C-alpha cells in the first residue's frame, strides 16, 4: 500500500504572524471579559521587557497563558467561541505569505495537511476551517457539563504530547514520515522536525536555532525561512547567529 505524505504545521509564529491566544486575550480585554488589572498586574511588565528586547518572549507568553487560563474559568465556551469568531473575522488574514503558499502547495499535491498547535482548540479549529485544513491537534481547555471552563488544560505544546499526536496521525493516515514536512518556529516544534524528513523553521527563535545547531541530523536537513517586510530569505541551518 502506498503511504501518504504529510505536512505538519505549527500555527503561532509559523502560519499566523503572532499568537492566536494573544489575539484572543486582547479581544477579551476589549469586550471586558477580563479586567484590565489582570494585564496591568501580571502581564504588562514582561510584555514591556520583551517589546523593548530586554526580556524573553517565552517568559511573557508563559505569564500570559497563566493569566488567560485563570481568566477563562467560569466563562462559557459559547461566549469564548463568539470572541474566537471575532478574532478570525478581524485578524484571520494575518498570516505569513510563505506558509500560506506552502499550505496551498501541499493541498494541491494531495498531501495530508495537519496542524499541531499549543493554542486553544476553540481557536485552532476556526483557523483550520478558514485555511481548509481538515485535521488538527491543539490544547484542550476543558469545560464542565454546563459548558463552563474549569481552568484545566490538556496541553499540546510539550514534546511528549506532540510526539503522541504525530504517532496517532501516522497510524490514521498511513504516513511516510521520511517524505513528510514539518513547519515550526520554536523549540516546541523540535519533535515535528525530528520526525519529518523535511523540516522548515519559519523565523526561528534563537533557542530553536541553538538546538538545531547542536543536533547533527537536524543541522543537515532543516531549512531556515525568514520573512521580513516584502522579502523571503531561505538560509542554511549553519547560518551564523549574532
The assigned structural class equals alpha/beta
Q: Please state how the strands of the largest beta sheet are arranged side by side.
A: 4-3-2-1-5-6-7-8
For the biggest sheet, the summary is: 8 strands, mixed
Backbone CA Rg: 18 Å
Element order, helices and strands? Answer: EHHHHHEHEEHEHEHHEE
Q: What would you say this structure looks like, in words?
A:
With 242 residues, the protein is of the alpha/beta class. Helices cover 48% and strands 21% of the residues. The protein is built from 10 helices and 8 strands. The protein has helices at residues 20-30, 36-51, 57-72, 77-91, 97-108, 121-130, 159-173, 190-195, 206-213, 216-221; strands spanning 6-9, 112-120, 135-143, 149-154, 181-184, 198-202, 222-228, 231-236. It has an 8-stranded mixed beta sheet, with helices on both faces. A hairpin with a 5-residue loop joins strand 3 and strand 4 (149-154). Helix 1 packs across helix 4 (77-91) and helix 2 packs antiparallel against helix 3 (57-72). It is globular, with a radius of gyration of 18 Å. The N and C termini lie far apart (47 Å). The mean pLDDT is 90.
In short:
By secondary structure, the chain is of the alpha/beta class. The protein contains ten helices and eight strands. The N and C termini lie far apart (47 Å).
Amino acid at each position: 500500500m502506498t503511504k501518504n505524505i504529510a505536512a505538519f504545521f505549527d500555527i503561532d509564529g509559523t502560519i499566523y504572524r503572532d499568537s492566536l491566544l494573544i489575539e484572543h486575550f486582547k479581544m477579551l480585554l476589549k469586550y471586558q471579559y477580563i479586567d484590565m488589572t489582570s494585564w496591568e498586574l501580571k502581564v504588562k511588565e514582561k510584555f514591556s521587557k520583551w517589546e523593548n528586547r530586554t526580556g524573553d518572549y517565552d517568559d511573557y507568553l508563559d505569564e500570559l497563558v497563566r493569566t488567560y487560563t485563570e481568566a477563562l474559568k467560569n466563562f462559557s465556551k459559547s461566549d469564548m467561541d463568539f470572541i474566537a469568531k471575532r478574532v478570525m473575522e478581524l485578524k484571520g488574514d494575518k498570516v505569513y505569505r510563505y506558509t500560506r503558499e506552502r499550505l496551498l502547495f501541499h493541498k494541491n499535491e494531495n498531501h495530508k495537511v495537519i496542524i499541531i498547535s499549543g493554542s486553544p482548540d476553540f481557536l485552532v479549529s476556526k483557523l483550520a476551517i478558514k485555511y481548509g485544513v481538515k485535521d488538527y491537534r491543539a490544547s484542550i481547555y476543558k469545560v464542565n457539563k454546563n459548558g463552563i471552563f474549569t481552568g484545566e488544560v490538556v496541553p499540546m505544546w510539550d514534546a511528549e504530547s506532540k510526539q503522541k499526536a504525530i504517532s496517532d496521525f501516522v497510524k490514521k493516515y498511513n504516513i511516510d514520515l521520511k517524505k513528510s514536512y514539518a513547519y515550526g518556529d520554536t523549540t516546541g516544534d523540535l519533535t515535528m522536525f525530528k520526525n519529518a524528513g523535511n523540516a522548515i523553521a519559519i523565523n526561528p527563535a534563537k533557542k530553536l536555532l541553538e538546538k538545531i545547531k547542536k543536533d547533527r541530523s537536524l543541522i543537515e536537513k532543516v531549512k531556515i525561512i525568514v520573512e521580513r517586510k516584502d522579502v523571503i530569505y531561505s538560509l542554511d541551518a549553519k547560518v551564523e547567529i549574532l
